[in-house]
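just leaving the lab so this will be short. below you get a single protein, a line of residues and a line of whole numbers that encode the local backbone shape. id like you to explain what the token line says about the fold, in plain words if possible. thanks a lot i owe you, the record is right below:

…
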Amino acid sequence: MKHPVHLRAVRRALVLLVLCLPAWAWALDFGFRAPRNPDDPAAVDVMRDLAQRIVPVYKEADTDVFLANVTALQIVGGAYRAAADSNKSLRGRQQGKPFDALAERAILDGIYAHARAIEANERLAFAKAYARSFQELVPPLDNAQAAAVMARLATPPAVYREPVRQAFDRWRGKGSVPQADAVALVRTWLAYESRRSFAALLPELIAAENRSRYMAEADVRIPVRGGAVIHANVVRPGGAKGALPALLRFTLDPAEDDAQRSAVKGYVGVTAYVRGRTPDGQGAVWPFVRDGEDAAAVIDWIARQPWSDGRVGMLGDGYSGYAAWAAARRKPAALKAIATIAPMAPGIDFPMAGQIYRNSMVRWAQAHAIAGAPQADAYADVDPDESWQALDALWYRGDRPYWDVDRVLLGKRSRLIRTWLTHPSHDRYWRKFLPSAEQFAQLDIPVLGIAGYYGAQAGALYFHNEHRRNRREADTTLLIGPYDAASIRLGTAPQLRGYTLDPAARVDLPELRYQWFDHVFKGAKKPSLLQDRVNYQVMGADQWRHAPALETPDRSRLRLYLDTRKRDGPHGLLPSPAEGGGNARLAVDLANRRDARMPWPDALRTKQLQTRNSIRFVSDPLPKDTEIDGSLRGEFDITPSRQDVDLSVSLYELTASGDYQLLFEPYDFRASYAGHRVHRRLLRAGERQMLAFTAERATARKLAAGSRIVLVVGINKRPDRQVNYGSGKDVNSETIADVKRPVRVRWHERSHIEIQTGTP
């Protein structure tokens, strides 16, 4: 293989150095004394010394990887000119190849290496040297490449500090580091150390680069019905030939403004703000009420602009995902597709879920809807998460009805929160915000929904299932996997709350959404992950499955009965009802508030299973690998002591090694609304009765042979949500005074759960 001049020079220099080395230099381990922390003044010298000792003996068969790592070693070792030469050779080899992670790294390291070389050779201030290097290497990139590089450069140094600290701690006291780990350590250090040098320079450089690439219009004012104005930001790709399709996000959160990201992808990006909200986040809004008609008006406005080709797609996450559905049900002519991530569904998963109100609705309203609504003054200077936990505990310990939750958490009455509390059922107030059956039936545009097994699925499942139920031929696609809302939006990491994702699950889902839009608007190939109407990742199998529906009648189902016989330790889960009857009993004192500040774990994988206010049921070991998917269903044969109760259902895999793997976000639901969220049907206190339920969750996992299935059933009593005292009154009006005695539930032998098994 012939190499460029710079590469051959690097090779010759290394060969000469290696030939002159004593035998000990060929050792695979390098002496290393870890600095105290990443900011230890001695760290620079320690890492420089390590890099200088690695360079002469470093070998790698892959030339591109060799050059990339040698560049990093030479930078950290202080050989800036050599580093710039090595990097130039690497960049030359990337010409004509896909812009992958290695090509991106070549640009990132190249800017820094070249800047340090300019600084050393020309005795130029680093700020000027870095600006010159940036302006030489970034402008030749296309929009997508430049955006990726600038996004990586702009990642705060603090993000890179923690990996350095962990690496130092890992090797502290061991005396030496193997070569492969030493090279990785140098790269980790370079990512942090370089950003400490140039982070402050980036805002001005990136802003100037973006001005040269895009045409941005800030705070465009779009008139809508009733004399109101919608504020919007519009970003168009510079140099576009002809009109383009537009992607609209209709939101109330300025942090969601991704108009430029859409422009990077070759669309006109439009971020419009709900009525009453400005791009700087100011102004009070009344959520849900006018979003559909206002978003439709913005779509019509977009279609009339000279830069528009008359086609608009909508994208959204959470609330803006809801807004996409609110607009779609009005069928504006220019709206051709919507793609949402974990969309909010009013009355389904917000402000209540399972018909149980969450205190988080107050925090959400305070952040996004209520102008000038501070937290209670006593916690104004505390970390936001800690202050809300303290406020939750304050409400929980008090003897006040849930009607007063806004006064406790906000320090004043909120008309918005009061309105929401007035509608505990899924009544006409909530239903008017969602597509009707007729509107679902008429929705004939392509739809993509993305959801996660862990708290990011109830709304997405509702919209997908209702669309399919009312329009059998609906062009609607669902992708769901082991994610929560944050990991979907921000990008999947190798780990989520203690669970290590299968490699197949580590997908850039926002990028996948743009690929889907390219398929719809530009005729690009449909992403392979979206092969069928439902696409789900099977945890533990490292595979994706593709099926016309998540659940079908022809699939087999695993049914397990709760072993309600009296016994020491956990109850069993049985393939048939237990003989001899009996009952499993649970009693919870709802007046006991000593647990106000006890944390509720959210780990997805753990060695210890918390069963506070719960009963555990455990199956026998599985005789073979078993794949489960879909939603958990069940029927509880119960005798409740009160007229209502809020139940919690969780399902785990207990592995042979003793790990508990949560299979979906715990499902909490109000028994009086089980299976029929529109009308409340009180229980018959003291009488045996059947209670059927379907968890508004989905999962998919390959359970290993030898694992056990663990069901945890509990009674809800948490500081961060409404508590149902079971009196039969409006739960918002109940207080601790309604408790009288602990609530008791007995489960009888016909109680069972079931879930789909096998492969589609």
Summary: DSSP finds 22 helices and 30 strands in the chain. The CA atoms of residues 328 and 335 lie 7 Å apart. Residues 101-122 form the longest helix (22 residues). The radius of gyration is 29 Å.
